[in-house]
């Protein structure tokens, strides 16, 4: 299945690798690497950021999720824009803005300026991520080849988890939190160089964009994520107002979608066998991963007094598997389809979340945390590439960008829920006379339950095993 955005040059025959295709895949993967490293690098800088700008835990949540709120709200529109105006245009503009926004973030004078700039980065990332998947769909029209290409994309981008915390810890030790944003500038320049050329370019699509529906979708997702953050930071009135606004705009969106000739969310995509379960699985995987990324630096630096660099090293059991294992996952998906890798990954995430929570509850040393970290790392590296391959392969003709945007948007909502939920438990743990990690341990039951439910839904629709062969 291919996107309607056919390349300007002739599509290569199956099994061939035209000049420049590998370079283009490397550039596309680097773009997503840059988007992900912006999250993982900042996680290690949280304590230094709080000291430098005088931020509370709630302020850290906004600095962390100011990026994901805008990213989640705009990803659906980013996918539609990619399909309509050309994925290569969306990619290159998004990457250029991301590089400039990162440079400005390094010189932010206060917390709320940083939060605003993080929103700009989220908007740029929303244009970039769906475009990467749309271009891969065009460059690799054969499902088995596409599964392998997605695995390369996932491995390169997943290495952001491995080097992000380590690099972030090194940069924070050397020059504070501001240095972590500067790494994006050369990455943006490298991406623009690698994605230059006719192979990546494509004509505009023919599918129109329903702008009122797109704006309603953006506002609904934005208010929903804002409500979740406010709830996690202990602001029930704020959360209720944002939640009510999300419900009202969601109702408007539903009415607009029923009359739209170009709906924001493709009904055909949602009706495809197993797709709702796969989308929920995407949210659950990101919930588990992001929640742990948010919690671990606070646990290690505030309670154990570890340095930023040591904290970055402590991430390695969780961050190394996503940088190497997706290549194996791609081969498995190409041979047997995505269902078994998705199920295996979700079960590993359930195990990892429970093991991590049990170790924290028991007051175990760092070695006791590594089992949970390893299981989560391998769980993400099995589930995520298979989820991406399944969703973009199932996407109706001409909607690869929108399908990738939908999956990415739902994943970012899962990330926001993870940070909001874990932030709430951090606040509870710090509210007493003595700081306690016990609430963080019990918090791990939430991602474990979400991943278990997703595994049940995916298992019910075994037809997805035919995808990606």
Number of helices: 20
**Range of strand content:** under 5%
Count of discrete structural domains: 2
Give the number of DSSP strands. Answer: 0
**What order do the SSEs take from the amino end to the carboxyl end, as H and E?**
HHHHHHHHHHHHHHHHHHHH
Produce a short descriptive summary.
The chain has 469 residues and is mainly alpha-helical.
Please render the helix and strand layout as text.
Layout: H1 21-44, H2 46-53, H3 57-85, H4 87-105, H5 111-139, H6 143-175, H7 179-182, H8 184-194, H9 211-232, H10 236-259, H11 267-271, H12 275-303, H13 308-314, H14 316-319, H15 321-336, H16 339-361, H17 366-394, H18 400-430, H19 438-443, H20 445-460
Helix pairs in contact: 1-5, 1-6, 1-8, 3-4, 3-5, 3-9, 3-18, 4-5, 4-8, 5-18, 6-13, 6-15, 6-17, 9-10, 9-18, 12-16, 12-17, 12-18, 12-20, 15-17, 16-17, 16-20, 17-18
Characterise this structure:
- With 469 residues, the protein is mostly helical.
- The chain folds into 2 domains: 21-198 and 264-466, MFS general substrate transporter like domains (Growth Hormone, Chain: A, Up-down Bundle); 211-263, no CATH class.
- It has helices at 21-44, 46-53, 57-85, 87-105, 111-139, 143-175, 179-182, 184-194, 211-232, 236-259, 267-271, 275-303, 308-314, 316-319, 321-336, 339-361, 366-394, 400-430, 438-443, 445-460.
- Helix 1 packs antiparallel against helix 8 and helix 12 (275-303) runs antiparallel to helix 17 (366-394).
- The relative contact order is 0.16.
- Residues 1-15 and 465-469 have low confidence and may be disordered.
């Amino acid at each position: 299945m291919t996107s309607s955005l056919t390349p300007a040059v002739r599509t290569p025959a199956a099994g061939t690798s035209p000049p420049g295709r590998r370079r283009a895949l490397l550039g596309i993967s680097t773009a997503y690497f840059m988007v992900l490293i912006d999250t993982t690098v900042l996680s290690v800088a949280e304590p230094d950021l709080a000291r430098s700008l005088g931020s509370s835990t709630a302020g850290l949540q906004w600095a962390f999720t100011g990026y994901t709120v805008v990213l989640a709200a705009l990803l659906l529109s980013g996918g539609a824009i990619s399909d309509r105006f050309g994925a290569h245009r969306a990619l290159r503009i998004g990457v250029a803005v991301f590089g400039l926004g990162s440079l400005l973030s390094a010189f932010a004078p206060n917390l709320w300026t940083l939060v605003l700039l993080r929103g700009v980065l989220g908007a740029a990332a929303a244009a970039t991520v769906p475009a990467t998947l749309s271009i891969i769909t065009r460059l690799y029209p054969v499902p088995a080849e596409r599964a392998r290409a997605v695995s390369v994309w996932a491995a390169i981008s997943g290495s952001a988890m491995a080097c992000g915390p380590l690099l972030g810890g090194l940069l924070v030790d050397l020059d504070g939190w501001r240095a972590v944003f500067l790494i994006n500038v050369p990455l943006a320049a490298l991406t623009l160089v690698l994605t230059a050329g006719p192979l990546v370019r494509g004509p505009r699509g023919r599918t129109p964009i329903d702008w009122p529906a797109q704006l309603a979708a953006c506002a609904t997702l934005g208010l929903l994520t804002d409500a979740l953050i406010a709830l996690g930071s202990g602001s029930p009135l704020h959360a209720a107002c944002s939640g009510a606004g999300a419900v009202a705009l969601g109702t408007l969106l539903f009415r607009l979608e029923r009359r739209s000739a170009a709906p924001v969310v493709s009904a055909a995509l949602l009706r495809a066998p197993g797709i709702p379960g796969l989308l929920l699985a995407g949210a659950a995987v990101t919930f588990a991963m992001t929640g742990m990324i948010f919690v671990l630096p606070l646990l290690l630096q505030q309670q154990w007094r570890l340095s930023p660099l040591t904290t970055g090293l402590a991430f390695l059991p969780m961050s190394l598997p996503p940088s190497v294992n997706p290549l194996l996952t791609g081969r498995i998906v190409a041979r047997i389809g995505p269902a078994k890798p998705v199920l295996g990954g979700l079960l590993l995430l359930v195990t990892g979340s429970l093991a991590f929570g049990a170790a924290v509850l028991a007051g175990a040393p760092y070695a006791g945390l590594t089992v949970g970290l390893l299981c989560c790392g391998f769980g993400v590296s099995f589930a995520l590439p298979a989820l991406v391959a399944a969703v973009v392969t199932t996407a109706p003709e001409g909607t690869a960008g929108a399908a990738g945007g939908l999956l990415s948007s739902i994943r970012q909502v899962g990330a926001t829920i993870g940070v909001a939920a874990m932030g709430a438990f951090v606040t509870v743990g710090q509210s007493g006379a003595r700081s306690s990690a016990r609430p963080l341990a019990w918090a791990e039951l939430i991602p474990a339950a979400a991943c278990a439910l997703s595994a049940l839904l995916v298992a019910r629709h075994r037809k997805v095993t035919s995808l990606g062969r």
